[in-house]
Amino acid sequence: MHRLLLLFTFIFVGVSSLYAQKKYPLLEVGINEASKLSQEKQKNVLFSPLSLYTLNSMLANMSVGETKKELIGHLGYTKDEIVLLNSYLIDLQKRLGEECVLKSALRYSKGYALNSSLKKILEENYEAEIASGDFIRKGEKVKDEINNWFYENTDYKIKDMIESISPMDKLILMNALYFKAEWEHPFDTKQTYNKDFHLNNQKTVKADFLSKTETVKCYASGSTKAIILPYKGNYEMLMISTPTFSFDAITAMDMKLKEKKVHIEFPKFVMNSSLDCIELMRNMNVTIPFQSGADFTMLFKKSEKDLFVSKMYQKSFLKIDEIGTVAVAASVAKVSRSLDMKDYEEYIFDQPFYFIIRNKMTKEPLFIGKVNNPVLN
């Protein structure tokens, strides 16, 4: 049984309703995917909906029949709307801005020839770098080339993305997303202090908390609270503490955000994460591409009927500090809050919370995460 291997990674450094599914399908798809991961109560959760959406879109272009129908449906379209999907990805990439760099690539086994129309779509719509390699006799060399590609395209953050190349592997899809942004209003390092963060198991850990008083968009009701912290440029971070993480809940909450001067505290944190995306996709009821019987006959000029996706995973790195960039080493000092804090409503995230890094205008999510323990790297 021949296999397709899908690899992708991303780096995050630093740091009228628009919820129309057909206009920005990544918005609903990404949050629905994240809701499947939100039940984790011990480990930190981090993934890129944009990276996964792009990879699945490329995969949809290689498939036919029920395989294609299932992938297209998951991406927010029908089996007849592959042209609309590709057009959306073109527009999406144009909106990324200078803060975000998305790279795609494809390596296929020597001796095979890609379908000409597919090759054109991947090069023109996805700007994919396409090349063949000797997977059978020079698998170790191909592996090193792929790992170097990831290392270079993630600002040297992700190493050893792939462990080996098997003679049974026929195609490797790759995706790297690098994002770097500074806060629109940086935090003062002198206001960073050490305090307790409350874990789900009733225990606490000491963490360094960013702290400031600022006018932001925010919302609080019962056990739900949310704030938006803008970055310079096109992006913002929505930070949420809520018992229910879902598309409907976030949509409703997002429309209730109001500007207000409040006191904000949340922990600095660094995340390294690895995610099995086949398991995630199966939880989203997408199963056909990952089993015998998948149909990827659009892939090669000579039809191959025994291809399926054998691996699909994502590695990531994230760092949030006072400035928002990994290049800045922020000093940490324990200070007391000033007495005038009593005059402002407090938004203190000192227990597990979610965050969404998204486009300010369209709300399309680049990254979604859950912080269960800020000192757990």
Automatic annotation (TrEMBL):
<dbReference type="InterPro" id="IPR042185">
    <property type="entry name" value="Serpin_sf_2"/>
</dbReference>
<dbReference type="Pfam" id="PF00079">
    <property type="entry name" value="Serpin"/>
</dbReference>
<protein>
    <submittedName>
        <fullName>Serpin family protein</fullName>
    </submittedName>
</protein>
<feature type="domain" description="Serpin">
    <location>
        <begin position="31"/>
        <end position="374"/>
    </location>
</feature>
<dbReference type="GO" id="GO:0004867">
    <property type="term" value="F:serine-type endopeptidase inhibitor activity"/>
</dbReference>
<dbReference type="InterPro" id="IPR042178">
    <property type="entry name" value="Serpin_sf_1"/>
</dbReference>
<dbReference type="InterPro" id="IPR000215">
    <property type="entry name" value="Serpin_fam"/>
</dbReference>
<dbReference type="InterPro" id="IPR023795">
    <property type="entry name" value="Serpin_CS"/>
</dbReference>
<dbReference type="InterPro" id="IPR023796">
    <property type="entry name" value="Serpin_dom"/>
</dbReference>
<dbReference type="InterPro" id="IPR036186">
    <property type="entry name" value="Serpin_sf"/>
</dbReference>
<dbReference type="GO" id="GO:0005615">
    <property type="term" value="C:extracellular space"/>
</dbReference>
<comment type="similarity">
    <text>Belongs to the serpin family.</text>
</comment>
